[in-house]
Amino acid sequence: MKIDKKEKAVVVIGSGPGGAQVAYQLTKQGIPVVLLEAGRRIMKEEYVNEEWPAFSQMAWLDKRTMSGNARIVKDFNGLPTWLVKAVGGTATHWAGATPRFLDYEWKTKSTYGSVDGATLMDWPIDGKEMKPYYVKAEDAIGSTHRGGRPPLPANNNYKVFAEGAKRNGYKFYATGPYGTNAAPYDGRPASIQDGFNFQGDKNGSKWNPNVSEIPKALATGKLELRTNSQAVQITTDSSGKADGVLYMDTKTKALHRQEAKVICVAGNSIETPRLFLMSASSRFPNGLANSSDQVGRNYMRHLTGSVYATFDKPVNFFRGETMAGFLADEVKHNPKRGFVGGYYLETLALGPSFLGAFLDPGKWGKKFADMMDGYQNMAGMWIVGEDMPQANNRITLGSAKDAFGLPAPNVHFDDHPNDTAMRNHAYEKGEAIYKAVGATQTYRVTPYPHTHNLGSMRMSAKAKDGVVDKWGRCHDVKNLFVSDGSVMTTGAACNPTLTITALAIRQGEYLAGQLKKGNV
Amino acid sequence: MKITRRELLISAGSLLAYSQLGSLANAEVNIAAQPGDQEMIASMCKALYPHDRFPMSIYMDVAAGAIKKGNADTGAKISFRAGLDGLKINKFDKMNFKKQTKYLKSIENTPFFGLVRGHTVVALYDHKEVHKIFGYQGASFDKGGYKDGEYNDLTWLPEPRIEEHPDLTAFLDDSSPKKYASLKIKKTF
Ligand SMILES: Cc1cc2nc3c(=O)[nH]c(=O)nc-3n(C[C@H](O)[C@H](O)[C@H](O)COP(=O)(O)OP(=O)(O)OC[C@H]3O[C@@H](n4cnc5c(N)ncnc54)[C@H](O)[C@@H]3O)c2cc1C
């Protein structure tokens, strides 16, 4: 469908799990949508099964800077995040782990109480309200172990992980829930265990909007997908409502304008606040919808960290699904451990190319080389846990400029002492798992460039505490919505994409209803 | 080592895109162009990431890439020249491994060291021959993926359960905010 730029359209910005889902929910109900995506559409035949070439094919590499005390600031200053600029968004890279929030994780302030230096806050929604949307999200993604869908088989990395977990007395391990098909589902085939899930998945077994919501929305005939179209400013009318989007053709650098009646922004937790800050005007001098001064703040990246171990026998952990291994025993809040919140452990395999860059950034010498030398006998896991929201962990417009002359975002990130305490606990437990099955060497690995990017446009009951309300609608601008992971009030322990999807389905249904009633 | 536009290097502190080195043709002075220079840099690459299993030819490939980067611009050239000079004067390639490590420690904060190390850690572990030596098989899509009996061929541990534990749902569902709020925080951090 072609939509005139002069027509006051429903405009969605960003085609990741958040934006693509909202666009699909609306078009499914017959509402025309213009979807602006900064990247291009990469079809699965084009995916490259090599780590660096695949990374440079899809990663968002526009200029960014970093500050703060987290180690990543020193190690990867120009690359704070690991995000994708392509149709389907970062889910092109995602692995597929799909756990849900626990009930109290929607209410961390009331549950954990006050934590020094943290800006914990209860979400304005709860587990009960979200439950039906989680079911819809699991069905949309096709999560294994859910909705009667079968589990993936064990690969070698999982065998080591599960047996080590068992010998440590853990019970709650399994090969999912995971967003890659174990059996054909929703027109997509079963996994062929080819080991390149992160690189887009040439087989199309992995869920990602580019193989699901985007083609489905296009099939409704109501979607206009404009690729290489990067939104750079949202404009407002004299009443303070959003009335258009200025966007740039990233190839020709020509600036265009799309008139809008409703705008949903889903550019991820860096680009969404950046766009709001770049949309400052005389009416909104601190940035659009920022009367609370919360735009860009409370940015979270999850706890993260990894443990790798070598054994005296081969593992070949690179074969098969990248992250189909799950352990939930440490997820529950248990302040006796010396921190609030909890974490999951999940299997993870990297090829030598990525492992060399991420095992211990900046390190060299014999110990490092010996660890790499054990590659064939190596197993690996990833830690994902709740990190503390902090007011000064935030996205701002820095003084540096990107290649388009736009202010580059600066990402400030300090580790909270709770994050450090939890990470150390998780390192110990991860090592214990591998030692129980005979590890000869274990290695604690610092967080990679952020793959989970949350907060920065937080959801709040009251306008003074956050940017958006319980529907993701801006407190200050009633026809402007945020539809991605940046709305997260707090991040919970679980990987975020299932929740982003559930929230986007809920928002899409709500918005369709409001549009039909003429309320927006 | 072949440099392609899409190749990327992540080094400590920065993300550098390899660029086409077309402007090199006009450069008046090329650094590390003397006989033996590439070998000298290769000995440094090997001392940084020592693998007895790797033939010297792999380190020579990596060194060639480092030298190209050392010629990328004037700033790189002057620091690379100074660094290489240091290696030569101290006969780095003739030192034993322990002395080499000590020497490298002493220059760790120089831009020359940063360039060579940052390049080596990426180029070495991305080298196709290294992948072979490591037993890394890489892409399998064209062969239909890793087969049953291949991705799961580990036999030194028992077959694990793949389904969720029957108690998992009850464990996760038991998470009422009220109940968990009654657990008191013991501040230890
Ligand atoms: C290696 C890796 C593994 C991961 N594994 C998991 C996992 O196992 N489980 C899990 O839950 N999550 C995982 N994630 C995280 C997951 O990918 C993200 O949570 C998810 O993609 C976020 O969705 P989003 O819609 O908020 O943003 P994104 O997916 O980042 O989408 C944002 C989109 O907006 C576009 N955009 C940005 N700015 C603009 C603009 N100004 N104009 C137009 N378009 C714009 C971008 O190009 C992009 O396409 C992983 C991520 C990575 C990198």
Summarize the structure in words.
The complex is a heterodimer of chains A (520) and B (189). Chain A has helices at residues 17-28, 51-58, 71-75, 108-112, 127-141, 156-167, 213-219, 268-278, 352-358, 366-373, 417-435, 497-516, and strands at 9-13, 33-36, 65-67, 173-174, 223-226, 229-236, 242-249, 255-265, 305-310, 326-327, 343-347, 378-385, 395-401, 407-412, 441-445, 480-482. Chain A is α/β, with parallel strands linked by helices and 520 residues long. Chain A has one domain (9-517): FAD/NAD(P)-binding domain (3-Layer(bba) Sandwich). In chain A, the strands form three sheets. In chain A, strands 1, 2, 5, 6, 7, 8 and 16 form a seven-stranded mixed β-sheet that branches. In chain A, strands 4-10-11-12-9-15 form a six-stranded antiparallel β-sheet, with helices on one face. A three-stranded mixed β-sheet of chain A has the order 3-14-13, covered by helices on one side. The two termini of chain A are 23 Å apart. Chain B has a domain at 34-134. In chain B, strands 1-2 form a two-stranded antiparallel ribbon. Chain B has 189 residues and is mostly helical. Chain B has helices at 37-48, 56-70, 74-89, 97-106, 111-125, 128-134, 168-173, 177-181; strands spanning 8-11, 14-17. In chain B, strand 1 (8-11) and strand 2 form a beta hairpin. Chain B is built from eight helices and two strands. In chain B, 33% of the residues are buried. The structure holds flavin-adenine dinucleotide (FAD). Flavin-adenine dinucleotide binds next to helix 1, strand 6, helix 8 and helix 12 of chain A.
